[in-house]
From TrEMBL:
UniProt name for this protein: N-acetylglucosaminylphosphatidylinositol deacetylase
Family to which this protein belongs: Belongs to the PIGL family.
GO CC annotation terms, alphabetical: endoplasmic reticulum
PANTHER family, per database record: N-ACETYLGLUCOSAMINYL-PHOSPHATIDYLINOSITOL DE-N-ACETYLASE, N-ACETYLGLUCOSAMINYL-PHOSPHATIDYLINOSITOL DE-N-ACETYLASE-RELATED
EC number: 3.5.1.89
GO molecular function, one term: N-acetylglucosaminylphosphatidylinositol deacetylase activity
Lineage: Eukaryota, Viridiplantae, Chlorophyta, core chlorophytes, Trebouxiophyceae
Cross-referenced InterPro entries: GlcNAc_PI_deacetylase-related, LmbE-like_dom_sf
Amino acid sequence: MSILQSLPSAAETPIGRFQSALLVIAHPDDETLFFLPTLQGLQAAGTRVAILCLSTGNADGMGSVRTEELRAACNVLNVASEDLEVVDHPGLQDGRGNRWSPYLILPVVTAAIGKHSAEVVITFDAWGVSGHPNHVAVSEAIRPITAR
């Protein structure tokens, strides 16, 4: 995981200094599998966390179920319903064989940053934590707009 931002570097900025953060994930369950300690740490420091999920996770035809599971997880994790957005775009479908274009990802992320007044964007590292191509695509798309 990496904290990517256009503010002072993560090393220079205490975690509690942010009013709002945007967590950008590829699929429902990424928030729990890969980012739970970060999410909880930000919340404990008083940061409001919004989640942008770029797909419904429909690789196995379970997208509606996985989306509802994400909503339930956010309820348990104290992420307000208005702070969760799940995208269902034909070009951003879950699957290792599906190539996601940064030209599709970038405007969605930019809009979410503005909507939530996010001071910091959190997403996958360059390897996508697990090497999943959808995770890697998210990292590659976001890095240019958040890096110094």
